[in-house]
Design brief:
heterotrimer, A mainly alpha, B alpha/beta, C mainly alpha, A: MetI-like fold, two-stranded antiparallel sheet, B: six-stranded mixed sheet, 12 helices, 37% helix, globular
Chain lengths: 298, 267, 296
């Protein structure tokens, strides 16, 4: 009887060990993916850099990979990315902060709950929808007032602003809500209004959380593809004029990969060079966001 | 909104007086029928078991209660002769005249200096020299000046817990309040820091009237001149059981409830 | 002589009035901003419906794409998206749940566990187009899967894997400790406890994360473009190795056409997309809401 029980136990423990190995293998997949992803981007980019010098890539102001005499200066793509991201942030930051302040300091619980659901929905709408809205709805509307090109950075940026607004609003609201209540009370007890309290106590206290949310929003805007691919055009333009067509790094990758570019060609390799740069930028920003976020906990 | 200066009371005057005062929050009655005066330049301690509405009573004096809950007041709460519940008193002026210190030290982000002059800046004082003088004066009152004089512009979070609490007292003193409300100000501090603050309060009462909520009976006995004792009945609605001079209430209580509470707690 | 500032009630009151006015202005502005965002969105989305609704009929839902606006349809894209959802969920959910269990229950607070934490956080932050070109290199090119459904599903699986891991971990963490202790006290092994206590209790939360992942898969475009799902597909795929198109890709194709009619057809496609997306979002939110109630 005893022996049987022990036997059973042995089998159970064997089975358990097998299960644990499977579980462990699944989680190590994440490591494998990370390594493989970095490796692929890197090796494919290396092929590109055998033909184009790193210096030309990083400092050249002309991006014309499909020309007979191609040039591979990435700055126009970087400028396009920078331009769309900046406009998006300029729209999303003040609006997001105002909404966050309203939600955390003025609205009641129920209203806050529903607005947060709405914001989550806003954030998860497929971005192709935003791209459509920018191109088909917003640009024609804009055209009535300003002479803009059919594809322009501005329309795409505005929609991008709407897309990242929820990140700033939600995360900032969470940062504000984490401010201890008695800090607010101390300010109110000195005769401050809620607005005084937000500006002089709550915001300074939660500045790192707000900053982290902004950095994260910037990172998302930089990595966003469909809005810019649909509405901002495909003209690598080294410009900061928002009313003309530009091409972002992501839009370039989408443009080249959707054509039947043969494997091994320089254009094919170039998407990995651009992708690698994009990877480095967003990785750095995400890391920064986490570091900044941790300040507050101290 | 009426703009009427609160009169500085003469010595017999009651600075604060509760008259049949009651509070209910979100429909739940916390206490009712509370009547007792708070005399000028005295320390009045409010004591009672947890949940007896001590803190609620304290927070209704500067109407801080209104900010986060759905409050209904009944009866009268007189501050320097005017009913702050029913007379349309400007809450900002009221709060400028009534300082408050909380359970845990809660300095604002920013420097020691910024903390002390927060109230003054709020009420429009911009003169840098004046702010500095008041800052130094307030820090001296709480005995913190010598410890921090070389780092007035350093973050307030660098201070120890006891120092932070004294800073918070200095912050409430800077606007020269008539009354300071303290909500268990030593409950999160070590005994040494607590003793420093108790000592400080006995000096401060020469300048302003002090109302303190405390869990700690010995503390109430040591520093207060008057005590008000709240106790909840079987429906969990509190009433004032006894009010009087501390010595009287502690050594010669009129009510058996007070006697057993003090005996049970201190014995 | 002690320095004191005697603030007169009048001075305080004048300042206070100004500050209260500022506050009122702020509240009005904030409320207007909120309404503006809401209103803009409703306005924009209603324009989608106005433009697209007239093209949306049974013929549109059951026809393959065509050069002629009045004959074109979304059928292969719908089928393609369905394949993608089923495959992606089938690949990503088991792996994601398994690694969440490992990280939450077995790896403890070791260094490996902490670095895995960071790695998964990083994976969640990588732009989706980068997953696309990674999938293009590894699945399409090196594994010779071609521009097939399988390549697409594998790529999307990698994309949603970190999301599933993170939300499943949260679900597992929310299981009360007492329940586990009871199970151990009854002599259950660790795995038995996980299998018969932890997973059943957290299943609603895990289900939520799966449903929200489906919504994400429906809406994802960029990685599919990158692996080359943009072909003009007339037929529906028969196996996972067939080339495919998806809803979002089809919409993108129509948007790229210069004719105005196709822009409106794109709007019709977006209506279908949003309805499907909204359906899964709503179910996900409802299940989460119920699960939240259950927890209390």
């Amino acid at each position: 009887m005893m022996a049987r029980l022990l036997d059973r136990k042995k089998i159970a423990s064997l089975k358990e060990r097998a299960i644990v190995s499977i579980l462990a293998a699944s989680s190590f997949l994440s490591i494998i993916v990370t390594v493989a992803l970095t490796l692929i981007l890197f090796t494919e980019a290396i092929i590109f850099f055998e033909k184009v010098s790193l210096k030309e890539f990083l400092t050249g102001t002309k991006w014309a990979p499909l020309f007979y005499d191609p040039s591979f200066g990435v700055l126009p793509l970087v400028a396009g990315t920078f331009l769309t991201t900046m406009i998006a942030i300029v729209i999303a930051l003040p609006l997001g902060l105002i909404i966050a302040i309203y939600l955390s300091e003025y609205s009641n619980k129920k209203f806050r709950h529903y607005v947060k659901i709405f914001l989550e929905f806003l954030y998860s709408i497929p971005t192709i929808v935003y791209g459509y809205l920018a191109l088909v709805v917003f640009t024609p509307f804009l055209k009535k007032y300003i002479p803009v090109e059919i594809f322009n950075a501005f329309s795409a940026s505005v929609m991008m602003g709407v897309m990242i607004l929820p990140i700033i609003a939600s995360l900032s609201e969470e940062a504000f809500s984490s401010v201890p209540k008695d800090l607010r009370e101390a300010s109110l007890a000195l005769g401050a209004t809620r607005l005084d309290t937000v500006l002089k106590v709550v915001l300074p206290y939660s500045v790192s959380g707000v900053l982290a949310s902004v950095i994260l929003a910037v990172s998302r805007a930089i990595g966003e593809t469909m809005i810019v691919a649909v509405a901002a055009g495909s003209t690598p333009n080294f410009t900061l004029n928002p009313f003309v067509s530009v091409q972002t790094m992501t839009a370039y990758i989408a443009q080249v990969s959707m054509g039947d570019t043969p494997f091994g060609s320089i254009e094919y390799a170039s998407i990995y060079a651009v992708g690698f740069l994009l990877f480095v930028i967003t990785f750095t920003l995400n890391y920064l966001s986490r570091v900044v976020f941790r300040w507050q906990k101290k | 909104m009426n703009v009427v200066e609160f009169k500085k009371p003469d010595s017999e005057n009651k600075v604060v007086e509760f008259v049949g005062f009651g509070v209910s929050i979100s429909g739940k009655q916390i206490f009712e029928g509370v009547s007792f005066p708070v005399y000028k330049n005295c320390i009045t301690a409010i004591m009672g078991p947890s949940g007896s509405g001590k803190t609620t009573l304290l927070r209704s004096i500067n109407r801080l209660l209104d900010e986060f809950c759905d409050v209904k007041y009944s009866g009268k709460l007189l501050f320097e002769g005017r009913d702050v519940i029913n007379d349309g008193v400007d809450k900002t002026i009221l709060r400028a005249r009534i300082g408050m210190v909380f359970q845990r030290p809660n300095p604002f982000p920013g420097s020691i200096f910024d903390n002390v002059v927060y109230g003054l800046r709020l009420h429009g004082v911009r003169d840098k020299k004046l702010l500095e003088e008041v800052c130094i004066e307030s820090l001296k009152k709480v005995g913190l000046y010598r410890e921090v004089k070389n780092r007035l512009h350093r973050p307030a979070y660098d201070l120890s817990g006891g120092q932070q609490q004294r800073l918070c007292i200095a912050r409430s003193l800077a606007v020269n309040p008539h009354v300071v409300l303290l909500d268990e100000p030593t409950s999160s501090l070590d005994p040494t820091s607590s003793a420093v603050i108790e000592e400080l309060l006995t000096h401060l009462k020469k300048e302003c009237t002090i109302i303190i909520v405390t869990h700690n009976l010995q503390q109430a006995g040591r520093i207060s001149d008057y005590v008000a004792f709240l106790y909840p009945n079987e429906d969990l609605v509190s009433h004032l059981i006894e009010f009087g001079q501390t010595r009287e209430v502690f050594f010669n209580p009129k009510e058996s409830l007070t006697e057993s509470y003090i005996a049970g707690k201190s014995g | 002589m002690a320095k004191e500032v005697i603030l007169s009630a009048k001075a305080i009151s004048i300042r206070a009035k100004r500050r209260k006015l500022a506050e009122k202005v702020f509240v009005v502005i904030a409320f207007i901003s909120l309404l503006a965002v809401l209103f803009t969105l409703i306005q924009l989305l209603s324009s989608v419906f106005v433009k697209g609704l007239k093209w949306l009929d049974l013929q549109f839902l059951t026809s393959p794409p065509s050069r002629f606006p009045e004959k074109t349809g979304i059928y292969p894209a719908l089928i393609g998206s369905t394949w993608l959802i089923v495959l992606t969920i089938a690949i990503a959910v088991p792996i994601g749940v398994a690694s969440a269990i490992f990280l939450e229950e077995y790896s403890g607070k070791s260094r490996i566990s902490r670095s895995l934490d960071i790695i998964i956080g990083n994976l969640a932050g990588i732009p989706s187009i980068i997953y696309g070109i990674f999938g293009l290199a590894i699945f399409v090119r090196y594994l010779h899967l071609g521009r097939s459904i399988l390549a697409g599903a594998l790529t999307l699986s990698l994309l949603i894997l970190p999301v599933i891991i993170i939300s499943t971990r949260e679900a597992i963490r929310a299981v009360p400790r007492g329940l586990r202790e009871i199970s151990y006290a009854l002599g259950a092994t660790k795995w038995q406890t996980i299998r018969y206590v932890v997973l059943p209790v957290s299943s609603r939360w895990i289900a939520t994360s799966v449903i929200l992942s489906i919504a994400r898969v429906i809406g994802e475009t960029a990685p599919l473009i990158a692996i080359g799902a943009l072909s003009f597909i007339m037929t529906t795929p028969r196996s996972v190795f067939d080339p495919f198109t998806a809803l979002t890709i089809q919409i993108y194709t129509w948007l790229s056409k210069p004719q105005q009619d196709f822009k409106e057809i794109a709007a019709a496609g977006i209506i279908v997309l949003l309805l499907l997306f909204g359906f899964f979002m709503a179910i996900g939110s409802a299940v989460r809401y119920r699960a939240g109630k259950f927890k209390e």
